[in-house]
Amino acid sequence: MTPLNILDIAQTFVDDYVVAGTQGIERRFHGATKLDGPVIAKTLECESEAFYVSGVIRIGPDGPFRMWYGCHKPGGGQPVHTAVSDDAVTWEKLPTQPDGSNCISFDDGTIVSDTSCAFFYDPDDQPARRYKMIHYKPSYYLSYSPDGIVWTPHSDQPVWANGSGDGLEECFFFLKDERLGKYRGYMRVWQERHTIRRLGLGESDDLTEWTGPEVIWSAPPEYGIGAQIYGMLVHPEDGVYWGIPWMFYTSEPLNRRDQQTIKLKLAFSRDGIDWQSVFADEEVVPLGEPGAFDGEMMHTYCPVVSVGDKRLLYYDGHPDKHDAQKSQGPGGIGLAIFRKNGFVSLHADDEGVVLTKRFLFKGDALQINAKTADGGSVEAELLADNGANLDGYRYEDMDVFSGDATDAPLSWNGSSDLGTITGQYIMLRLRLRQADVFSFCATGDQELFESDSRPQPINCGMCSTAPVIDGKLDDNCWQDFDHSGVAEDFVTFERLEPAPVSTRAMFTRDETHLYISVDCEEPLIDKLATNREENEPEFHFDQDDTVEFRLNAPQHGTFFNQVCVNAAGKRSQAWFSVEEGGSRMVPGAEWKAAVSQVGGHWYVEIAVPWTALKVEPPATGDKWMVNVIRHRNTDGYQISCWSCLFGGAHRNDLSGTLVFA
Question: Is 453 exposed, middle or buried (0-12, 13-18, 19+ CB in 10 A)?
Fold first, then answer.
């Protein structure tokens, strides 16, 4: 199985995507903690008793909070109101209009009274456009504001018209996906003769032009009989996506209590498109008791608000069922609080162990999101790609974690710096005692995660004159850098660290052959190992000072040609595939090789007919996978590579690229 590339994305334990195995572990659900009563209820004459929270934004990292909410009037219309708060819990409804109401308005004085709204704040935009509002009336329109109170329309035309894609509706949720650099709009879409509600998605770079929407998800059966998606809040967190679908239940459920309700359920996605249910029987925020302000239905158009490690979920609660003919009382806006990436954990009472799958570690530290009971603990150790413990990173070396933290660094012997294993494939094993672990992630400078571990491609051009294969590397083609590509800056076998001695390979070709030369620095040249012979039935050339070339054309599939030359000029060739059972030695190699030695260097020069590689001569623009590996035995055994193998001897998938120019 190909190791995971986790980048700096939170690796949650919502499923077994990153889990290789567990012992003594159970998966647990953690819902949000609901505050008693509403934080916004009817206190002004201009308000009605039906509330819909549209957005809450914090102005600056330590500034006040501003909320926008709609109040649906029985006679029609839904004026949008605003309130401010210093603590996000206690709200002040300051007058914004001449009549003393707290409504927002357009610049002509008209009160904003559209069915639904979404709000954004961009402090880096020009002052008049720092606040942005998408509003539905129907079709989606865009407006701007300097203060979040008085708004100027972007245009009298919609930015997203009804009839687009699979359909637009007023039950929507918009967000700015900072990681993608795009705006996303999730919305309810009616289908199948207007009998089924599904979830659609559209995207925009600037809020003015939208794709879709396209239906991406239907309520899976595990949510229960009669479940339909009425809308969904989406919360990106550290590269993953939590969904809180407003799950509407028709009159089909067998339990009358569930009929004509809307519940806040839980979903999860790694890209915001492909969704899965999570603990489908649970509710993120449970409905209140019958008669309570949130006793029958909940929605939320409001993005989650992050305050430190806490996540604030505002929702509008309704005491009436969806098909109610008469109101049972006032609704309001409630608040529930949950932990960062904290909906699902792996839990152990006495002792449990979880082992992750192999992953590429590109950071320089690891963090866990975990919580222990008094006397509980979390211990960690690291394993190499081959399954062996990494020295210095065992349980007994680890600084044991206890307490409650969402970003606790893992450390061994007093240090959390893992820079020495950056670029390796590793596994993480956690031992839990009376503890919950919610997630882990790699951390470090962003450039660590953005860089590709593979070297730049080699350009292999056509030489005007074929080299003489004598190992001297004095032919014109090896000086012609316009037509000969260079592979240098070799690294160690295990990680992206410079090799202890330098190696430099060059590639060129003609219509009949591939030509390769290699310059191997060797300060201990009198200790070169050259014991192997040609046509040996098994591969042992790694026991000599040897240069190995791995060549894989697209038509080779999982196989690659393993071409080796030792410092005595002895040759070896194998046809190799891990998936197909290993090496098939090729006797009587049909290619030439020569070596030489000069002042602390030994040189290799080879000419390989295309026929010996089982391919037609490549065309300009063709690309092969290639790697050059040096086995050094003068000072113990050392391996260096042009493209790092991260400790995996047969990782052909980590090869670099040879481009035929």
Answer: middle
* C-beta of residue 236 within 8 angstroms of C-beta of residue 340: no
Query: Which CATH number is 644's domain given?
Result: 2.60.40.1190
Q: Is 394 within the bounds of a domain?
A: yes
H or E element at residue 380:
strand 365-384
Q: In angstroms, rounded to a whole number, what is the distance separating the alpha carbons of residues 85 and 525? A: 75
* Helix and strand totals (H; E) in the chain: 1, 46
In a domain, 11, yes or no: no
Does 391 share its domain with 529? no
What is the residue-wise DSSP string for 283-332?
Answer: -SB----TTSTTSSEEE--SPPEEETTEEEEEEEEESS-TT-SS--S--E
Q: Which domain holds residue 642?
A: 453-660
For residues 379 and 297, membership in a common domain is answered with no
CATH number of domain containing 244? 2.115.10.20
Handedness of CA 91, 92, 96, 102 (dihedral sign): positive
What is the model's pTM? 0.75
Q: Are residues 414 and 305 in the same domain?
A: no
The amino acid at 377: S
Does residue 435 belong to any structural domain of this protein?
A: yes
**Neighbour count for residue 12 (Cβ, 10 Å):** 28
Taking the chain (661 residues) in consecutive chunks of 10 residues, what is each chunk's mean pLDDT?
82 95 97 96 93 93 93 81 96 95 95 89 94 92 96 95 82 90 93 90 95 94 96 93 97 94 97 96 96 95 93 96 88 96 96 94 93 96 90 95 96 92 88 97 82 81 95 94 90 86 96 97 96 85 93 89 94 83 80 95 97 93 95 94 84 87 88
Q: How many domains does the chain contain in total?
A: 3
Out of 428, 448, 468, a domain closes at 448
- What's the token pair of residue 258? 């569930």
User: Which of these, 364, 348, 347, 360, lies nearest to 410 by C-alpha position?
Assistant: 364
pLDDT of the residue at 589: 84
Q: 353 in a domain, yes or no?
A: no
Type of residue at 165: G
> What integer pLDDT is reported at residue 75 of this predicted model?
65
